[in-house]
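Wed. Picked up where I left off yesterday with Fructoselysine 3-epimerase. The coffee machine is broken again, so keeping this brief.
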Amino acid sequence: MKLGMFTLGYMRNPLEDAFKDAKRFGYDGIEIWGGRPHAYAPDLKNGDIKQLKSFVEYYGVPIIGYTPEINAYPYNMMIGDEKMRRDSIDYIKLSMDMAKEMGAGFTLISASHAGYYATTEEIWERLMLNIRELTDYAEQLDHKLILEALTPYESNVVKSANDLVEVFKQIPSNHLAGMCDIVPPYVQHESIMTYFDKLGEKMQHMHIIDSDGSSDTHVMPGEGNLPLQELLEELKEINYQGYLTIELVTAYINEPRLYTKRAINNVKAMLGE
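Structure written out below (tokens, as returned):
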């Protein structure tokens, strides 16, 4: 297993700080969050991509994937009129272009809340419309698109392994895959390990963190209620070879360097390293 750093926690710091720390603390790769002040897709297109690629070369830390910010500020492909949907889809396509150019292994997206007035039928019709178009684009680019399930606190669209299975059933493509952030299944009393059983070869990435068990809060590994060490042991047992991105987010943005170091130390200790 390889450990990745997520850069959202560095949103108040220069992006280069994340690369420096990933190198210093022993992360195997870096997952780029796509939001200002750094790695926002339009800014990358306008020239910032050169600096990002220079960080990869200088620090020798590969980019695992690119995760553009698409959960409602200002982009959400699941809500609003057709103009808003089109704007979001075009933004994701641009993000995929930038991911391909930066050498990222995939672009990671999620389906944010569709609003309280949308019916299940309307939600899935719009989801399929969006994912089909994005998958077609991924095939044209020869780039991987990964879909993440969210917690019910965040979304009423794709929230479980079964939801992902249904998406892949309706849109079969080698360029579309899934992943597991371990908080959504944990807070819904869904088995985390069944993601591997249900998704099979489509299970291609993970976000690991800890949880309080009753919200979407991402807690420092080893400091919540999730049986994380036992989960890591199970991942070893099944010989999982993919990346585990340690997804520290907004709860730790005041001291990203300190918390990023603690996070990888905690996880490595659980792995016996």
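Quick read: The radius of gyration is 18 Å.
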